[in-house]
Amino acid sequence: MRIGTRPRFVVTICAGSFLLFLVQPMIARMALPRLGGAPSVWNSAMLVYQVLLLGGYAYAHMLGRFPARRQALIHLSLFLVAAIFLPIGLMGWQPPQDMEPALWVLWLLAASIGPLFFVVAAQAPLLQRWFALADGRDPYPLYAASNLGSFAGLIAYPLLVEPLLTLKAQSLLWSLCYGALFFLVYASARRLPPGGAGEVTAQASDAPRPDGRRMLHWMALAAVPSGLMMSTSLYLTTDIVAMPLLWVLPLGLYLLSFTVAFAARRGAADFSILIAPLILLIGACIAFTGGIHFPVFIALGILAVLFVVAIALHARLYDLRPEPAHLTRFYLLMSVGGMVGGLFCALLAPLIFDWTYEYPILLIAAALLLPARKATLRLPQLLWEDARRRVWLAPLMLLLGLALSMVGGGLALGDATPPLVKSLSFCAIIVMAILTLGQRFMTAAMLVYLMLCLSGWEKLSQSASGMLTRSYFGVYGVANKSATERILFHGTTLHGVQNLEPGRERDPTSYYAPKSGVGLALGHAPDLFGGKARIDVVGLGAGTLACYARPGQTWRFYEIDPAIVAIARDPADFSFLARCQPRADIVIGDARMTLARQPAGGADIVVIDAFSSDSIPMHLLTREAMAIYGRRLAPGGLLLIHISNRYLDLRPVVAGDAMAGGWHARLRHYKPAKRDAARRYAASIWVALSRDPSQLDRLARVSDGETWRWLNPTPGFSAWTDDHASILPVLKIRP
What is the pLDDT, as a whole number, of residue 204? Predict the structure, then answer.
């Protein structure tokens, strides 16, 4: 049975894109145990992918100088050369202690998968060019098929590949599929006509070369959706967990936007362009109100903003596409734009901003890049159709919008601004934004005013006063919630509270209350291990736990982020360390690697309290991690793990780890009484583990009657390992 030219190319392009985007979450998942669980790990990985994609597109563009059959020979030869790097996986290097984490991630990933990714990345533009030579029809709709294959690869990983296969099996499967892709490319190359270079030259001579302004426009239209995709990923993974399921959602929608935007039928793309200005208003609201809580509708809202805006901008790219003779140049510049967006979000933004300002900036850029169209509503049409009216109307609305944003944001009247006035200011700006539909610059201005009205002025004030700190591992803020309460927050999650009332500055608060699991264990450490207990704490936070220290004890903290160490050591921010352990021993680095380098049996208590916003990193809850903790503990030692989480039920994970590693486990779910509200206590879930069950019995006896219940394994749940872990079974239906 002979397969036609178009189906043959569609299958090959889809297969290449499927493999290309299957490997992205797979390699990032492999990197987590070595690089830590920060959400920025994925953004750094995405930047590597974009750079390699750019290299692949540049290579495909350069091949266009050769005759078609010679292009095929060069490409198939490079396919075979890259195969020496199979099976695909990470190199065994370890990050140097003095190297910037962002740069190390880029180097490790590029060196590990660079050649293979580079070859497969060239598939989409190169085969589209070959299709134009072999078939003569418009090749651009094949890009929609390419992105459909990419989306399938992304979705297959968290839903099928990750839950069912170990990382080793995933690597072998990908390597076998790479071999199959070679034969698909060969089958497509056989359809190339001889002397194809003459046809390419003839086409190029007839098609005018795009000018510099048009090429810059292509790059801008590609950069903004790419940046939005990465900033959306950061927003999602900060609050839940850095894992493939949440990585692929924004990237998958980003790829699907190409499928819709480049489709032959234009209905969905035109509709997205029509509603994009309204969707941007939703994005502006999310950007400055999503930091209070993170309900499901906020997540759905930010994903909808990404999808619709990406379709609208990519549809504009499709409308501006050149003749097929310049196809590879078009895709090359699209890739440059995507990389620029990635560089902005992954490298520049963490360096130049102390908050996630890149997201609102990208929303404003999207508003400016949307195609100019007449508003569908009659009133905006009437307002702006008269050129003489626009001369005075635009400045008037700009001044009024600025005034409303200052009133609504509390800048004009301060804390005395009534809530009703704030609400009316917000509504007035929304109405003005609707009245400016169809006017790109005015719509962008209204977006700015809307964000300032919500909490933009407050964020700018926090930045100006130095309250915010940003590092590779996240955005932190130190603020006075009241005259007697100072808080540390990461993302949308509270990470420390200090009571500023005279005489109470040393009181443990938040998740570390005296009757919490960790409070009971550390408070009774002398009863359990004598007066010279050795205590290791993974995760410094504000330094609250330091105030459980007693004379004669030996304490050591492990913290991955130097920015947190600076906050905890500065008495102007928090004085726990200054008051309780002014010469605290702090080891900087990922906990697994730094603990593994410590002497065996050197701690009586190990506390695992390392959080990235609301979630403990996945690589700290695997069997391999538990083995490191067990090696560090002395015989009969106590391991305490903090598993409070709004979205994941981590009890089965710890129970599975305990059963697999020969541990016994008890759980303490602490809920503060109402009378303790003034003490700033918070509910928490802690698990105490020991290989000696009598030690857990002693902990229960000295806990002043507080309940420690045994934690039993969940039937059918397997322990997480570095090679195989999935969060699907532990997702909470309701946060």
Answer: 47
Kindly report which listed range (193-197, 212-216, 585-589) carries the lowest average pLDDT score. Answer: 193-197
* CA pair distance 348, 361, nearest whole angstrom: 13
Residue 273, H or E segment: helix 267-289
Question: Helix, strand or coil for residue 115?
Answer: helix
Measure CA 476 to chain center: 16
Residues 464-500 pLDDT 10s: 877 888 877 778 888 887 778 888 877 666 778 888 8
Per DSSP, helices labelled H in 414-493 are 419-435, 440-451, 457-465
Q: How many CB atoms lie within 10 A of CB 486?
A: 21
Give the Cα separation of 616 and 59 in Å (integer).
Answer: 41
State the Cα–Cα distance between residues 303 and 288, nearest whole angstrom: 16
- Residue 114 CA to residue 200 CA, distance in Å, equals 30
Question: In whole angstroms, how far apart are CA 151 and each of 458, 526, 548, 558, 655?
Answer: 39, 56, 50, 39, 35
pLDDT per position as a tens digit, 599-639: 999 999 999 987 655 556 777 888 888 999 999 999 999 99
pLDDT tens digit sequence for 20-59: 888 877 877 777 666 655 555 666 677 777 788 888 888 8
Which residue(s) pair with 709 in the sheet?
667
Which helix H or strand E contains 62, and what residues bound it?
A: helix 40-63
Tokens of 218: 């292509």
Question: Average pLDDT of 361-385?
Answer: 74
Q: Is 562 exposed, middle or buried (0-12, 13-18, 19+ CB in 10 A)?
A: middle
Q: Which of 162, 214, 182 is nearest to 29 (CA)?
A: 162
Give the residue with greater pLDDT, 92 vs 581: 581
Strand ranges (E), 57-129: none
Cβ atoms of 626 and 665 within 8 Å: the answer is no
What global pTM score does this model have?
0.74
Nearest to 76, CA basis, from 212, 183, 210, 205: 183
Check if the beta carbon of residue 485 is closer than 8 Å to that of residue 542. Answer: no
The two most distant CA atoms of the chain are separated, in Å, by 88
> Phi and psi dihedrals of 556, rounded to 5?
-145, 130
**Cβ atoms < 10 Å from Cβ of 678:** 12
Whether the Cβ atoms of residue 443 and residue 367 lie closer than 8 Å to each other: yes
Q: Whole-angstrom Cα distance, residue 345 to residue 230? A: 7
CA distance 446 to 16: 43
